[in-house]
Design the sequence.
């Protein structure tokens, strides 16, 4: 069975009786290019790949000249490559293919496997789609061949101006300046990234600001690569993953030579590049608004924050710690231990308050910080301001984190020791080598000591667990706003704004596969349609992130961890790795960028 | 060669359903013989002796409560008594072993107790006495159950130590706590050990003296605290336990006991769960 891909406008536009010319590449089906008149057709030779497959009659329609009884017609709207429309069998990747492992889940793996199996059978369709995507180029070539004898294509005013500008010295100077600037920025960005990710400090996992700077630097590092790809200048060390490779015949004698590479493979890069740029611009404009608001109301805000922080970071914590030392709500605590812990925490509170918290939360210094934040927000964007706020908050709540870690550690030790002593109680011992519990003969003194300690620890457990529970609640209360702020940051940094707008404006630019639907009246005609990317695919990194967050904060294993006393932390670098998915794992080296850019200059 | 027939229903075997094993008739004959002859049972004296041993351990536990009551309620100064008891224990240890007494282990135990007694004293300060008595009561029940099930298990020793620790947390001073711990260790860990070695060496007179002394202390204490009524009730119940229960046991063994290889072969099997 043979398929003929038929452009829709041919059926509707007015033609007289004419010859239907189609093109067929190795392994593809017929793609109809145009209906030509008899004398036009005389210019076309079949050695260029153009074949007459039938005739077109306005009344009777298409009359086939192929000696194949079964023909299937696939009607399609030719994609406008200049507007970046194209067909694709698979959804175009919004994340880099090398980062796909981050999204790994058993379901997606299965899907991938199915795709690979299908690929063999869909080989012909794939080839045909490739030809079909280049419809307008092929048509242009055909028309050029027909009209070559008549006239040369006219140059418009703008193209000639463009050509002249490109040839001028000033332009060359500007280009060189741009390249040097790009190289300097790239070098600076890559140095900062390397410093931030360096092993001894690893600031990225410690502070939100460092992470934000790192993200921007990596984006800056990736810009030249993206630019080169979009403009189809091959970066020297990068090989493009060409999913839909298309070999076009070289036509040396023609002034319009067809593209050697398939253009639409760079479109995802284009989308990613402009998404990033747009987000940065958005970020800065948000930042300007928020920064101005902050600067205008800084006096009121700083006064309010002073009262708020003093109450909740010092007075309330102080009150609770004191209360815990005095047998709260009739719970039978061990007086001595409770008193000791309470005194310890009170001491830490007083110390941290008098050394730095009081200094930071005084009205004047809050005003200063607000000024810094609003300036940052205006200059670099809202995300930087938010990351500064997050870092400042974690600094201010350090004493609460400290309490939490101390009590968690003690609680965990106690549970661990109690488990070991429970084994001793039954005459067992944990065998670390074989990871099992063995019987063991204990001496009388070991038994006595162990049992005495065990009894004491059982009596002390309620006290420690109460301290642990109350400080876990505190820690949670501190963590939640931080997590919320970081989520806003993630949205501002990685929201697929460009793709969403494309989905509204021109869904053909973000193909997510094709649909073939039968046309009602005829038996052998089908309609080829483009499926735009679904919202599910667009927001996939966010879905993965949400799942990770749920796993991290609201799952049974987390509850288990809390009960056992393992400390709960924000795994910042692990979580936001998912959102870095539009960036390569290691930024490209400056040397490579230099070679590519200077090569592009010529 | 054909597989031997097994008396198992769930096994697929190469035998007809109505197959009768040739050994079956022999077994039936043997079974008849066993059933017609009178059953052998354990001797009454032996059972009474075992019950007496158990009773003795319970009495040893009673000594712990006596000591506790003396320290906690009657506010006795425990130092002299503890010193005397420790010296006695030391002398006995030297006499019995005729060799170098292990020094390390007792020293470790004594110093551990010395270190931990202040902690123990403050351990349950905020709890009410009633809950401590309840905990101690349950621990004692567990202890008695564990020595009933396994005489030489370390679990029983551990339960005893934790019971002592719980009781000690009620005492007033650190000295009291330390002395109480030491006395209880000597009375409940060393004394049973000593008595066991006495029995093993057939020093029956010595053992009888120890037993009588133990009983005398406990009954004297009950009488002086609670009056004759309680003593009589307690004594009569222990007498019936030591001498009455063995009779019942032998009666049960005669009529209901399912042990014995041949007798139990055709009984319903209970599954062995791993």
Sequence:
């Amino acid at each position: 069975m043979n398929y003929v891909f038929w452009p829709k406008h041919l059926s509707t536009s007015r033609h007289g009786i004419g010859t239907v010319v189609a093109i067929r590449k190795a392994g593809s089906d017929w793609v109809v290019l145009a209906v030509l008149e008899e004398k036009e057709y005389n210019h076309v030779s079949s050695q260029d790949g153009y074949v007459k497959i039938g005739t077109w009659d306005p009344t009777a329609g298409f009359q086939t000249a192929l000696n194949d009884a079964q023909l299937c017609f696939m009607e399609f709207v030719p994609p406008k490559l200049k507007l970046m429309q194209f067909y694709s069998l698979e959804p175009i990747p919004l994340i880099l293919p090398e980062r796909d492992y981050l999204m790994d889940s058993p379901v997606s793996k299965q899907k991938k496997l199915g795709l690979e199996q299908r690929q063999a059978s869909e080989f012909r369709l794939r080839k045909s789609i490739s030809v079909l995507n280049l419809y307008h180029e092929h048509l242009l070539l055909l028309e050029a061949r027909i009209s070559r004898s008549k006239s040369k294509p006219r140059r418009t005013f703008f193209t000639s101006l463009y050509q002249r500008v490109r040839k001028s010295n000033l332009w060359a100077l500007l280009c060189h300046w741009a390249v040097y600037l790009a190289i300097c920025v790239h070098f600076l960005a890559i140095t900062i990234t390397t410093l931030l990710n360096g092993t001894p400090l690893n600031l990225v996992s410690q502070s939100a600001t460092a992470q934000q700077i790192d993200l921007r630097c990596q984006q800056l590092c990736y810009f030249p690569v993206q630019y080169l790809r979009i403009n189809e200048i091959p970066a020297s060390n990068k090989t493009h993953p060409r999913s839909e490779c298309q070999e076009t015949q070289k036509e040396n004698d023609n002034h319009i030579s067809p593209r050697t590479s398939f253009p639409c493979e760079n479109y995802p890069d284009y989308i990613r590049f402009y998404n990033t740029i747009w987000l940065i611009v958005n970020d800065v404009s948000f930042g300007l608004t928020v920064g101005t608001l902050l600067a205008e109301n800084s006096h009121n805000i700083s006064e309010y924050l002073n009262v708020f922080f003093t109450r909740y970071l010092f007075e309330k914590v102080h009150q609770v710690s004191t209360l815990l030392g005095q047998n709260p709500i009739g719970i039978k605590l061990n007086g001595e231990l409770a008193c000791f812990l309470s005194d310890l925490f009170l001491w830490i509170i007083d110390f941290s308050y008098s050394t730095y918290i009081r200094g930071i939360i005084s009205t004047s210094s809050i005003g200063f910080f607000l000024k810094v934040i609003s300036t940052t927000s205006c200059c670099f964007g809202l995300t930087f301001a938010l990351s500064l706020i997050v870092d400042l908050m974690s600094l201010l709540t350090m004493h609460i984190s400290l309490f939490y870690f101390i009590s968690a550690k003690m609680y965990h030790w106690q549970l661990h020791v109690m488990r070991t002593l429970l084994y001793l109680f039954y005459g067992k011992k944990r065998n670390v080598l074989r990871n099992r519990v063995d019987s063991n003969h204990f001496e009388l003194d070991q038994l006595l000591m162990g049992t005495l300690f065990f009894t004491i620890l059982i009596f002390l457990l309620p006290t420690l667990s109460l301290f642990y529970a109350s400080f876990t609640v505190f820690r949670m209360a501190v963590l939640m706003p931080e997590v919320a702020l970081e989520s806003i940051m993630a949205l501002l940094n990685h929201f697929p704004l460009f793709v969403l707008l494309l989905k509204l404006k021109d869904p053909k630019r973000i193909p997510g596969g094709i649909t073939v639907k039968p046309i009602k009246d005829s038996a052998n005609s089908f309609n080829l349609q483009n499926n735009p990317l679904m919202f599910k695919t667009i927001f996939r990194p966010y879905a993965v992130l949400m799942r990770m967050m749920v796993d991290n904060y609201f799952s049974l294993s987390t509850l288990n961890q809390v009960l056992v006393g393992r400390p709960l932390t924000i795994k910042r670098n692990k979580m936001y790795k998912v959102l870095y998915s539009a960036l390569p794992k290691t930024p490209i080296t400056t040397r490579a960028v230099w070679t590519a850019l200077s090569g592009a200059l010529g | 060669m054909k597989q031997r027939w097994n008396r198992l229903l769930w096994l697929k075997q190469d035998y007809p359903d109505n197959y009768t094993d040739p050994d079956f008739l022999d077994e039936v004959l043997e079974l008849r013989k066993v059933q017609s002859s009178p059953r052998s049972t354990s001797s009454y004296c032996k059972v009474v002796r075992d019950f007496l041993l158990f009773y003795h351990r319970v009495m040893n536990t009673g000594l712990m409560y006596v000591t506790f009551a003396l320290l906690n309620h009657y506010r006795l100064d425990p130092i002299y008594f503890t010193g005397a008891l420790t010296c006695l224990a030391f002398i006995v240890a030297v006499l019995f072993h005729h060799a170098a007494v292990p020094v390390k282990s007792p020293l470790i135990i004594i110093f551990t107790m010395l270190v931990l007694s202040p902690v123990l004293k403050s351990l349950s300060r905020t709890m009410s006495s009633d809950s401590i008595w309840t905990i101690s009561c349950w621990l004692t029940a567990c202890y008695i159950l564990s020595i009933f099930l396994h005489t030489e298990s370390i679990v029983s020793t551990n339960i005893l130590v934790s019971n002592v620790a719980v009781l000690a947390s009620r005492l007033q001073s650190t000295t009291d706590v330390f002395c109480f711990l030491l006395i209880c260790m000597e009375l409940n860990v060393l004394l049973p050990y000593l008595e066991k070695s006495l029995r093993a060496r057939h020093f029956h007179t010595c053992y009888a003296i120890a037993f009588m002394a133990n009983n005398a202390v406990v009954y004297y204490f009950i009488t002086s605290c609670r009056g004759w009524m309680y003593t009589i009730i307690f004594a009569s119940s222990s007498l019936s336990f030591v001498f009455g229960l063995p009779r019942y046991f032998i009666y049960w063994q005669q009529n209901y006991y399912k042990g014995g290889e041949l007798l139990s072969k055709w009984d319903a099997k209970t599954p062995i769960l791993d």
Notes: The radius of gyration of chain A is 34 Å.
